[in-house]
Design a protein that fits this description.
Chain lengths: 525, 625
């Protein structure tokens, strides 16, 4: 461990390694705390998570805006005989996901009381943070795979240990479903590494492999599909999404928030980093299908969300719809659609994370999530209703709030290359208003029942916990430029990479279009 | 002084934040005054900008000033700035938005008296005003869209302001979702414009070469979808009558004077891209909406429902004007309509207030004696909307009918529909005035109707003044008196000129005045002197608005809901069912072969032996071949 911290790297201080190690140390410390002091567990854990969060802010500060490549890299030999390294780095695509992971975990630790066994709960959440950092930072395929799989364990434990009535079923389903997806990815990882060697040394270095492009077209496509399967399950893309509503609904609030804000992004991030980057030709080849699946997710997720009877399940299905936008954006391959997609990953984390937190707070008060059993909450708890409204409007995509920025960029960019997909996907904004406002009407409007009337308004602590989300929602809606200008170079780099290795060319909006001559009409002269 | 433009939206935004922080502490009436001062300040700032703009040379194209705050959405070649465009069109809109808006703020202090959520109401009003000003002043489509959605969200908050009432909650949601259909059109239009022209900024769009005919028409129609949602045109008008669930000042400001005219503004702003084919569609839909809604208004009993359908109908006139190419006439009518319709709504609010929340006109009557100011100002509004010269409505409506007459494809037909609508308008408004203020007293003695306080009657008097003289901003009598037309001219690609001779113009004006008088006469004969039996004048078919809304509700509630439910069932039974089925299948298979792991040594020994033999046989077979 000391070796990792002192490893030679671009930065004088190997901050990316520290990001992964600090929460692990935190987990160990928490485990060593005496069981007789349960009240210490979460505060101590939160301190370590917050230190990691502070490091993630340091990464943000150190990040060079114009540099399209990987920054703050750190390489440490791990299994030399196979060319496997501990290799981490950050670019514009992963930067904000790292910051989000850094900030969300301490907030969740402070916000949500597990009610029992705080020690393992805290430790698992810290390991989840470490694993998520690792997966977003890994530039070595083997390291990525390890991290990608490791995060499953804490989440499985959180759902199974602290979840609701159906937690065992949901946890098992979550674990098996996602494992099944990544099994083939391991085969593909080994294939890519070995088949790309071509006389040179075998390597798992992502940058190196992306430059080599040594696989034959068909092999590359097969490997791409294996990667994609793992990622689309994680996103999740319809029709491999059904683990998500169960996992989300049964998970404890902390699990739901981290699952939505961070873990789903492993899927879309994976599609960008390992799909498009490693397999540009195959990505272009498969783009129509994957964009179609994204659009289906937008519409289908929204329709199914509308009919949910459980408020938490409704938010879970809204995630399916939102993630569909991101998938469309990724496979539209334009600067705007990709920037929008990356930004939407953050936006979704903020708005859906906040919604899950608030559904959890509502459950704590009313011991139910059934929409039909709730009514008139706005009369009883107006401030809570106000916070919920802002998160809801962000999720609906009202301009001035963050959700709009991502959605708008995804759609306007996708219109360039995937016109009809975009026209259909945009109807998702109508449906989003429908399912959220309908739910809001039933839960918050109307006359409160005797039980609802006693619903307490937000406590000061809850307000403080939610404030960072609200600040993010408004700030990113009004002034997203600091994020966009750091995302853009990396995204453009990725598009040039696509153009170099396939026949794709990004269209230029406003350029004169060659109009097909209309033979039938005489009026056009 | 045009540099002060940032102050115009900043003041209501400041008011919003103030009320958010201290509104509940200040309470009543302080928070109402904070909001009113913010709105009034915004009006004064608009006046200052207006004066500054007038000081610039109109002919040299100097009257267009852009003020950029910051880069909002920079992404690749897409440049979206948070910026304002001050030009004759936006300043004209802003003047009446802030002017009428301030009066309605003032009025609300009296109207909302005693409401437990008093300060919250004003918080929403200020946020609404801010959004509306962003819509009007945005220098590109996306900032306008910000305002567009902002006013939509505020409209949602305000319609469902009394959210304990089921009907109010439902109406708010309905308004938002229906508007979203229009927003879809707005978004796709924006994408298509960016794709074709490489810009979303207004000044650049109007200087760009024309798009291909197909793209141009598609974009025009998509923009009209957006406008039809916000401005309540067929077939998306259904949310507006329901929006009357909101407090009456909201109906006056949001759902009559300002927000619902956004669609008109958008099309006028985008006049350079509208194609002739699309204009014809807009004219037809506008005329159809005008007639349809006027027919519906005839049979309503709720004092506000009459005005709501009337608003839909008048908005139809504005789109008829746009479709006929007469953009100035459309904006002219937007302004005069803002005066008299805000007046009528506030008047109806004063009546409702005085009658202790009674809205059924059948339970009113003879109120002119107890509410003289309300009655007097309401009558001014009535004369204006009925098209009686020289009140404001006459001038603007007359221009629209003239433009419709000159429309080159089906002009006379459009004109005739507009004329019938004018007759109906005069009729149903006269009916309303008679039922409410004249005739016999239909309320119980213990109701004790009373005149409203000065904060409510002052705006009524000011708006009545505007409804009388508002037509003066664009009098067709002498060419130099067409102030509005000359002022707005620079923003149009193809300035519209009336081609008819003076004789035709006068003849058409006389016909429309006569039509209005016929409508008024019929109303007097039937509702005041009771010479015409009234029992068949309110057919159920019209009272229920031709069952359009009911049909929508049946489709959405029936077919729509069941299709959604089937999809959700499909998700849980088929999609998730096959996942669980696969899991069960694997377990079954495991159970099936589980007996082989029996734990008996002899079974394993047999297994090993058979396996070994099989391998040997296989190898031997391979060797032999």
């Amino acid at each position: 461990m000391m070796q990792l911290l002192t490893a030679q790297s671009v930065a004088s201080f190997p901050v990316l390694n520290a990001l992964i190690i600090v929460p692990v140390v935190g987990a160990l410390v928490v485990v060593l705390l005496p069981n007789s002091r349960p009240e210490l567990m979460r505060p101590v854990g939160a301190i370590f998570a917050a230190i990691a969060g502070a490091f993630s802010l340091y990464v943000m500060a150190e990040f060079s805006v114009q540099d399209p490549g990987f920054q703050l890299q750190s390489i440490q030999s791990w299994i030399p005989s196979l060319g496997i390294n501990w290799h981490v780095g950050v670019d514009g695509i992963s930067l904000w996901l790292v910051v989000l992971t850094g900030l969300i975990t301490p907030i969740v630790l402070i916000a949500v009381d597990p009610h029992h066994d705080p020690k393992p709960y805290t430790a698992w959440l810290l390991l989840l943070q470490a694993g998520s950092f690792g997966a977003f930072l890994a530039l070595d395929l083997f390291l990525f795979f390890v991290m990608f799989e490791i995060v499953l364990v804490p989440m499985y434990m959180l759902i199974g240990g602290w979840g609701y009535d159906d937690r065992r079923y949901a946890a098992t389903k979550f674990f098996l479903y996602t494992m099944a997806g990544s099994a083939l990815m391991l085969v593909a990882i080994i294939s890519v590494a070995t088949l790309s060697s071509g006389g040179q040394d075998i390597t798992f270095n992502v940058i190196e492999l992306a430059q080599r492009q040594a696989l034959s077209t068909n092999t590359a496509r097969l490997c791409f599909l294996a990667f994609v399967l793992a990622f689309v399950i994680k996103v999740p893309v319809v029709p491999v999404h059904t683990w998500l509503p169960d996992a989300h609904t049964q998970a404890p609030t902390a699990g739901s928030v981290v699952l939505a804000a961070v873990m789903l992004k492993l899927g879309t991030y994976g599609l960008l980093r390992f799909g498009l980057y490693l397999f540009p030709e195959a990505s272009v080849w498969a783009a129509p299908t994957l964009a179609t699946l994204g659009v289906i997710g937008v519409i289908y997720g929204a329709i199914v969300a509308t009919m949910q009877k459980d408020l938490k399940r409704l938010v879970a299905y809204s995630s399916v719809a939102h993630m569909g936008f991101i998938v469309l954006g990724i496979f539209a391959f334009t600067t705007q659609s990709l920037e929008g997609g990356v930004l939407q990953m953050i936006n979704h984390g903020l708005s859906t994370g906040a919604l899950f937190l608030m559904v959890g707070m509502l459950y704590e008060r009313r011991k139910t999530r059934a929409i039909s059993e709730l009514s008139g909450i706005q009369s009883a708890a107006p401030i809570f209703a106000g916070f919920f409204t802002v998160a809801m409007l962000s999720s609906i995509g009202v301009p001035g709030l963050n959700g709009f920025v991502g959605e708008f960029l995804v759609l306007i960019g996708s219109y360039e290359t995937r016109r009809w997909w975009t026209v259909i996907a945009a109807t998702g904004v109508i449906l989003a208003a429908l399912y959220l406002l309908w739910a809001y009407q039933r839960v918050f409007h109307g006359e409160p029942t005797a039980d609802d009337e006693k619903t307490a308004d937000l406590s000061l602590k809850e307000g403080l916990v939610l404030t960072p989300f609200l600040v993010g929602i408004v700030f990113l809606g009004v002034y997203p430029k600091p994020l966009l200008e750091r995302i853009e170079p990396a995204v453009n780099n990725l598009i040039s990479h696509l153009e170099d290795h396939s026949d794709y060319v990004q269209p230029d909006p406003g350029a004169p279009v060659v109009v097909e001559r209309d033979h039938g009409s005489k009026d056009d002269h | 002084m045009v540099e002060l433009i940032w102050l115009v939206p900043a003041l209501p935004l400041l008011g919003f934040f103030l009320l958010l922080l201290i509104g509940h502490k200040v309470g009543e009436p302080g928070s109402g005054w904070i909001a009113t001062i913010a709105a009034g300040g915004s009006f004064l700032a608009t006046l200052a900008v207006f004066v500054g703009l007038l000081g610039r040379d109109g002919h040299a194209g100097d009257r267009s000033y852009e003020f950029i705050l910051f880069e909002w959405l920079p992404a690749g070649s897409l440049k979206v700035e948070a910026g304002f465009l001050v030009d004759p069109l936006s300043i004209t809109m802003a003047l009446f938005v802030t002017g009428v808006g301030s009066l309605i703020h003032l009025y609300s202090i009296g109207y909302m008296h005693g409401d437990p959520k008093f300060s919250k109401f004003f918080l929403y009003l200020n946020l609404f005003l801010f959004s509306m000003l962003m819509l009007v002043f945005g220098n590109n489509l996306v900032v306008t869209f910000l305002g567009w959605e902002g006013v939509g969200a505020c409209s949602y908050f305000l319609i469902s302001f009394w959210h304990q009432r089921e009907s109010a909650a439902r109406a708010g949601k309905k308004a938002f979702v229906t508007n979203r259909v229009g927003d879809w059109g707005f978004m796709i239009a924006t994408f298509a414009i960016w794709s074709a022209l490489g810009t979303v900024t207004y000044t650049e769009i109007s200087n760009s070469p024309a798009m291909s005919a197909a793209t141009g028409t598609a974009v025009s129609l998509l923009l009209f979808v957006a406008a039809a949602g916000k401005s309540a045109q067929l077939p998306l008008y259904v949310w507006l009558p329901d929006a009357m669930e909101g407090p009456t000042p909201v109906s006056a400001m949001v759902h009559a004077a300002t927000m619902v005219t956004s669609g008109v503004y958008l099309l006028v702003r985008m006049n350079s891209v509208l194609t002739d084919d699309a204009l014809l569609v807009i004219a037809v839909v506008g005329a159809a909406t005008a007639l349809f809604a006027a027919l519906c208004a005839v049979a309503q009993h709720d004092i506000k429902k009459v005005l709501a359908y009337s608003t839909v109908s008048q908005l139809g006139y504005m789109f008829l004007a746009i479709g006929s190419g007469a953009y100035v006439a459309a904006i002219f009518h937007v302004i005069t309509h803002a005066f008299f319709k805000a007046l009528l709504f506030l008047g109806s609010g004063s009546v409702i207030h005085g009658m202790h929340d009674e809205q059924d006109m059948r339970k009113m009557g003879a109120l002119r004696a107890v509410m003289p100011i309300t009655a007097g100002t309401f009558i001014v509004g009535w004369l204006a909307i009925a098209g009686v010269p020289p009140f404001a409505g006459f001038w603007s409506k007359d221009e629209i009918l003239l433009a419709a007459w000159e429309q080159k494809n089906i002009g006379p037909l459009l004109w005739f529909v507009g004329l019938v609508t004018a007759l109906l308008t005069a009729y149903y408004m006269s009916r309303q005035v008679i039922l409410v203020f004249f005739g016999k007293q239909n309320w119980e003695e213990d109701v004790h109707p009373h005149e409203s306080s000065w904060t409510m009657t002052t705006p009524l008097c000011l708006l009545a003044g505007a409804a009388v003289v508002g037509g003066a901003i664009n009098l067709p009598l002498v060419k130099d008196w067409l102030v509005l037309e000359h002022f707005l001219e620079p923003i149009f690609h193809h300035p519209h000129h009336f081609s008819s001779g003076t004789a035709t113009k006068i003849a058409l004006a006389v016909i429309s005045v006569v039509a209005g008088l016929i409508g008024i006469s019929i109303a007097i004969l039937s509702w005041l002197t009771r010479r015409i039996p009234t029992d068949r004048l309110e057919p159920e078919f019209l009272e229920n608005a031709m069952y359009v809304d009911a049909t929508y509700a049946r489709v959405v509630g029936g077919t729509g809901t069941s299709a959604f439910q089937k999809t959700a069932d499909f998700d849980s039974s088929v999609v998730d069912g096959s996942v669980n089925g696969l899991g069960r299948l694997i377990m079954k298979f495991g159970q099936l072969i589980q007996p082989t792991q029996s734990g008996y040594m002899r079974n394993y020994a047999i297994g090993i032996a058979v396996g070994a033999l099989a391998i040997i046989a296989l190898l031997a077979w391979g060797l032999l071949l």
